[in-house]
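Hi support team,

I'm opening this ticket because the web form for multi-chain structure prediction keeps timing out on my end. I have pasted the exact lines I submitted so you can reproduce it. The total is 716 residues across two entries, so I didn't expect it to be a heavy job. Is there a limit I'm missing, or should I split the entries? Thanks in advance, R.K.
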Amino acid sequence: MKILGILLVTTCLVTTTITLPAQTKKQAPLMIEEQGSFAVGGSVITAPGVYDPVKRGVDGQTFHGDHAYVFYQIPVKARKLPLVFWHGIGQFSKTWETTPDGREGFQNIFLRRQFSVYLMDQPRRGNAGRSTVEATIKPVPDEQSWFGTFRVGIWPNYFPGVQFSKDSATLNQYFRSMTPSLGAIDPTVVTDATAALAGKIGDLVLVTHSHSGGFGWITAMKNTHIRAIASYEPGSGFPFPAGEAPAPIASSAGPLEPTVVAKEEFLKLTKIPIIIYYGDNIPTQLDPNNPGADGWRARLAMAKLWADVVNKHGGDVTVVHLPEIGVKGNTHFPFSDLNNIEIADLLSKWLKSKGLDK
Amino acid sequence: MKILGILLVTTCLVTTTITLPAQTKKQAPLMIEEQGSFAVGGSVITAPGVYDPVKRGVDGQTFHGDHAYVFYQIPVKARKLPLVFWHGIGQFSKTWETTPDGREGFQNIFLRRQFSVYLMDQPRRGNAGRSTVEATIKPVPDEQSWFGTFRVGIWPNYFPGVQFSKDSATLNQYFRSMTPSLGAIDPTVVTDATAALAGKIGDLVLVTHSHSGGFGWITAMKNTHIRAIASYEPGSGFPFPAGEAPAPIASSAGPLEPTVVAKEEFLKLTKIPIIIYYGDNIPTQLDPNNPGADGWRARLAMAKLWADVVNKHGGDVTVVHLPEIGVKGNTHFPFSDLNNIEIADLLSKWLKSKGLDK
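Hello R.K., no limit was hit. The queue was backed up. Here is the completed structure from your submission:
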């Protein structure tokens, strides 16, 4: 161990061969018709002047940035509509891959169910790190706070019955599933790139999580190829038409404000089926001792108010609070929790009910 | 178009559906026994104090960083030794995925040849962006310089016969295949994480490119699970034993220095087969008008000197300068160039000759 400033640094070297989880080996092979990756959307900065290949200065050079990066897999006999998966705050495409405890995530689960799967890193995140804005990123210890906000428990305690493995190897992978933004998260930049993806691949079902929930609503207003949205624990950004927005909802994580948009834009969200899921261990009334979880009480309440307004205007929004249908113990990441097959089954059932799995 | 400071910004929105290249659709399906992702290696910063879940300050919190991120695929009836692919400077795992012009890269090509394929993002890059050091990253236009250094041509001209598609969509994808480092590239950090990967998965063949070439030699000294190395255009960091290092080699990109290591460490590299490839359009003598390409003249010359020293001590290093065996037009990225099947065939043949493809 070395002392780095006031901080303690521990080096983690794995020196023995660790076998991969047996569970994944029992599955049938994935039959992939096609797989690959690409950048989509973004912008180009061009420095004035003429490029000199000997001096190699900035004059006349370009910088391509702010694109999304996408890795896609199309299974044999794929269903018509692909699923496009969009991570949340502090996260990247890993959200949908192997779970922290080494089981299959939604990437593999839905490939096995014959959906084409597109995993996106939003602009300025993960493999799409080439940002057009300057960024300074500091390694600030913050993981016990995320443990609370993501409702695994209240550090150092896990919630009783939480759908999360309590071993240290799982927690190590969980914390390493985060990666910073290279610059501000710009709603226009991230939704433009996702709309460009829809323009490139055509009709799709968008699956969002947390922070991307709000961006998903905006993207669907920008591109009609987004035929449906499934959103896991969307955070801020529920868009109400002017005159129909509720009051802010207080929580010990701070007040949650509704977003107001033009009615013409809002009405676009009444044209597609939408399902929203929230997990367990959300306080039922303002909890000053647990701000990490309490913010989700406000978001769940806002989601229900929003669904009512969209549905009043002819929309088709369903809000599922998982414990209310008997699905207990889910964290902020239901799709990678221990019961993620059950969570996937719920999504499959909904997709079928809406004719989205042809 | 908007003016951003002195820089011109162009927004690139794809608004029509673009079909994916037909070429990839003609292939047989990929049969994947298992696929997934994980973080490996890295360190942990722990802030002193006790975490307070209400205040949520830095006290007592942790920060897991400096791991590598790995996405792996194991095909049905996989060969014994996996190929672990390590990107070069400014790059990430995309290096080995879909080529800039939309063809299959080494990821798919070697899966089809029944190798398990592990694609790594080195610590502080791409999906492994959670860095333990502070970083400030600026969007400096630099792409015409890379066009030269990567030997596509001398901007705005392509080299005659270069194995690179000359359309703008290809160049767009090519430039967007870069992503910045989040903090200094630390040889100890990146080689520790790669050695940890070898510790986790066991015996493997390491495939390096450019900047990771030098790191590959160090990693093989750290972990004997690295059973062979294939290196595409390794840059600096050729390790010579004390007393046997050559003089620096001048180039218009600056002098190339040899690296000196303890003889005991050096001798480890005599125990494994190594192949090194360089592409075309490398000057034959110091070219003051083309520093981008001239640096490769020095690196190729140093590689040959290094191979001689390793082989003198009983090693097995082969340096292939592709034009000398009739393979013309390759850039700094032979594995994604237009003739990448031919390049893959050369690697397959070498792996077979060394008994590495059982």
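A quick check on our side: Confidence is low (pLDDT under 50) at residues 1-22 of chain A. Let us know if the file doesn't open in your viewer.
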